[in-house]
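Sample intake sheet
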Amino acid sequence: MNNTSIKSILSILLISSAVIFMNCTGKQGDPGPAGANGANATNGKDGSNGTDNAVYLDAISRGGITLSLDGKRPDGVAFQATLDFPYSSSEKTFSSAYRYMVNSDSSDEFYLKRYTGYLGFSGDYDYAYQWTRIYVDALGDTSISSELEVFASVTFPSEAKYFNLSGDFGYESYYDGEQGPYFDGDIRKPSFSGYSYDSLSGELKHTFSYIVPGNYNSSGYDLQVKMVTDANAYLQIANPSSESRYNFRKKASGRVAATSTPATVAKAEMKDMK
């Protein structure tokens, strides 16, 4: 057998062996161990700060009114709630102060209307609208008049219930001769405290507490109300010779009284200003 024949036979054997090995599949091995965790990725760059909403900033810039309520719902269930009215319209009529001097008597009046929302101001939001008058006569006696108009939804999320609270109520305290202060109005047990007004900054603060009878609010039950005002009021520039919108008359004792009830006048003005 020559070398050529031997090489041919060997080649055939090698090819046959390769074919046999290629057609034989072994058992799949077990998975290998898990690889190590990869390194944490680098944090991305911080985004740019957003632009402040000019309408929002303007609406909260004049402070607000907070009402704390303690009473019963229309269904007779006792409740306590706090209602915040932090937003104002850009219309200064609803953040205004008026200062009058009549001889030695002075009168400061404030009109504030605040909302639960800051867009539109077209009656779509709950609101609290208050008028307050601080009158000091020549002898230093002070009378306080106030009117509050409110419309708000009192919500109970855990029960998926609410009721609309509405009311229009006020009071006036005043002096009559030497007999001391009197009270007239449609609320009970009024208390006024913490009054301050800075005519340079416009900052106005005061607290009213009183009981509103059930026939003066939509709950139908007596309602304890605490109204806290922390807001700015713009002082209107008026002719120095102008007199107060209220006509005062001197009594024989030298005290001053109003010929019209300020709360009644304010109520009409408030409705005209809506």
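Comment: The chain has one domain: 56-273. The CA atoms of residues 64 and 124 lie 18 Å apart.
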